[in-house]
Specification:
- This protein is α/β, with parallel strands linked by helices.
- It has helices at about 25, 35-40, 45-50, 85-95, 115-125, 190-205, 255-270, 305-310, 315-330, 345-350, 370-385, 415-420, 465-470, 475-490; strands spanning about 1-5, 20, 55, 60, 75-80, 100-105, 135, 155, 175, 210-215, 275-280, 300, 335, 390-395, 495-500, 505-510, 515-520, 525, 535, 550, 555-560.
- Helix 6 (about 190-205) runs parallel beside helix 7 (about 255-270).
- About 55% of the residues are buried.
């Protein structure tokens, strides 16, 4: 038996927390067909009852909503579709009443093109605001860099759709956008940018925020020489994104980002209560993740290697051992992440012939997942991750085993990835469909108006929250039991050993309780030892025909001896 993680004695809340991601447009509405802050506040008891310790709120700032709110026009204002600043204060207060911390999404790599800085930069080529972005005069695109959403990462000002007839419709300058043209990248070498975001941090901390999830944390600093880079770096595919002999991208993971996060850490440390910084950093070398979570930088980094890992024994064993080893080396907790607003839902992704990160959306004419297999594997993966030391992130609806919506009409899609790739990718709308709360209400109780900004599949009626609460064997009740046991058994801070069997078998140890064994079976059943007392089994939700003396294929069991 090999110990792969020593028990953690530090009790900072984020080291072993269950953190629930809320996508505001799709969680709950207090008014029309789009989710809002009052709707979230009204449903926060669902998150507290689940056993979560914190919520992470995807952006709710003032925004044209060209990229689901990740195009921010004003970082200190709430977009009217979500409410107002008073609603944000009430949400934070209610969360704290329920014992929930609040992590606010921060988007520092780029702003909206409607931000006052960028509008000033457009209005006058000599405006000082041009230095706050990456504007360049050139006959052609300054580099061959590609946008994550498809196409060039550069747009010429006079080629913008809104340039015709404007004062700047002859401006042949180019500006950089590693995502959509409506999301111009900021120049973090400029002190005004750094000062502004320090102020933004303090604004939300003063309102009671308990931390920040940092969007595109690896992208803020670019190589100032702007070299060409003929390789396309697909940010969200996972694994080794580039061959070993390919040089690192000049627009991603530059060393200068760490100076920024040291400044931010110092700001958060001025406040009481263990305020957290969480990095969304998609990295070519997974070992680089630990650089973001050194003691004077971030608190956590999303473990995308776990999210993108295929549902296979060797892959899971390697990623779990590597993740714990690398985070332990800098004293940071490991995070276990299976889904978010950017990837196909786990219950569908795990049902495909090739598991892992999966495609960028699924449409009816593409490979359709096996729904039962996907659900079983997703539950097994959640049960595995929830038994491991560190912190858990769960995306809204995963506790309901919601599948991807794969039959969305193209005319209803909003993800810029769909349009930038000219429909080659379905995009992320299928994982952002509003939550079903009550089976017998219009829009499944998502809004009082009985409407929903994206249609919900009819089969979600059986997965609605009220239906699952009434069913002892439901996915929702399984998650509530699982997180309660995780808390009672101290799994987030326990020592972990790999039993080194021919199957995936870990032993969680903590003084004052019996050792807990965690076994995940893949294609074949795994025998349980004589006298095993089952504490939790993912088969409670997805019953198997295999007898009780085995861990059924595609399931996870926790047991004691």
């Amino acid at each position: 038996m090999q110990i792969i993680h020593l028990a953690n004695t530090s009790r900072e809340w984020w080291r072993e927390a269950v953190i629930y991601q809320i996508y505001p447009r799709s969680f709950a509405s207090f008014g029309g067909g789009v989710g809002d802050l009052q709707g979230i506040t009204s449903r926060l008891s669902h998150v507290a009852d689940l056993g979560a310790h914190a919520i992470w709120l995807s952006p709710f700032y003032k925004s044209p909503q060209k990229d689901g709110g990740y195009d921010v026009a004003d970082y200190r204002a709430v977009d009217p579709i979500f409410g107002n600043l008073n609603d944000a204060k009430n949400l934070i207060a209610r969360a704290h009443e329920l014992g929930l911390r609040v992590i606010v999404d921060l988007v520092p790599n780029h702003t909206s093109d409607q931000h006052e800085w960028f509008q000033a930069a457009l209005a006058d080529p000599s405006a000082p605001e041009r230095d706050l972005y990456w504007f360049r005069k050139a006959d052609e695109a300054p580099t061959d860099w590609l946008s994550v959403f498809g196409g060039s990462a550069w747009t010429r000002v006079c080629d913008r759709a809104d340039a015709k007839g404007s004062p700047w419709d002859h401006d042949d300058s180019w500006y950089l956008h590693l995502f959509d043209p409506a999301q111009p990248d900021l120049n973090w070498a400029h002190p005004r940018v750094r000062e502004e975001f320090t102020s933004i941090l303090r604004f939300w901390l003063d309102l009671g925020a308990d931390g920040f999830r940092v969007d595109v944390a690896h992208g803020l600093v670019k190589d100032p020489s702007l070299p060409n880079y003929q390789y396309h770096w697909d940010m969200v595919s996972g694994g080794d994104l580039l061959p070993a002999d390919v040089p690192p991208p000049p627009q991603w993971n530059q060393p200068g980002v760490h100076d920024i996060y040291r400044e931010w850490r110092a700001v958060l440390d001025e406040y009481e209560g263990d305020r957290a910084l969480v990095a969304e950093a998609w990295l070519n070398d997974p070992l680089d993740a630990k650089l973001y979570v050194r003691s004077d930088e971030m608190s956590q980094a999303f473990n995308f290697d776990f999210l993108t890992s295929p549902f296979e024994l060797a892959e899971y064993r390697e990623v779990i051992a590597n993740s714990l080893r690398e985070m332990d080396s800098v004293g940071a907790p490991t995070t276990w992440v299976l889904s978010n607003h950017d990837v196909v839902r786990a219950a569908s992704r795990f049902g495909l012939s090739k598991t892992g990160k999966g495609p960028n959306g699924i449409r009816p004419f593409e490979e359709q997942p096996d729904p039962e297999l996907g659900r079983r594997r997703a539950l097994a993966a959640h049960a595995l991750g929830s038994a491991l030391p560190g912190s858990i992130y769960i995306y809204q609806g995963e506790e309901l085993s919601l599948p991807e919506h794969m039959a969305l009409p193209d005319e209803l899609r909003e993800d810029p990835a769909f349009f930038r790739t000219k429909g080659a990718e379905a995009g992320r709308d299928g994982c952002r469909v509003p939550i079903p709360w009550e089976a017998d209400y219009p829009a499944f109780g998502f809004s009082p108006a009985g409407s929903s900004w994206l249609p919900q599949p009819e089969e979600w009626k059986a997965l609605a929250v009220d239906v699952q609460l009434a069913d002892e064997a439901s996915s929702l009740n399984f998650f509530r039991k699982m997180y309660r046991l995780r808390e009672e058994l101290g799994l987030g801070r326990a020592q972990l050993a790999d039993a080194e069997d021919s199957y995936l078998h870990y032993v969680s140890s903590l003084p004052g309780r019996d050792d807990l064994h965690i076994v995940t079976a893949f294609d074949d059943p795994v025998p349980l030892p004589k006298g095993a007392k089952i504490v939790l089994s993912s088969d409670e939700v997805a019953p198997s025909t295999v007898n009780d003396e085995q861990v059924a294929p595609n399931s996870t069991v926790w047991y004691t001896l």
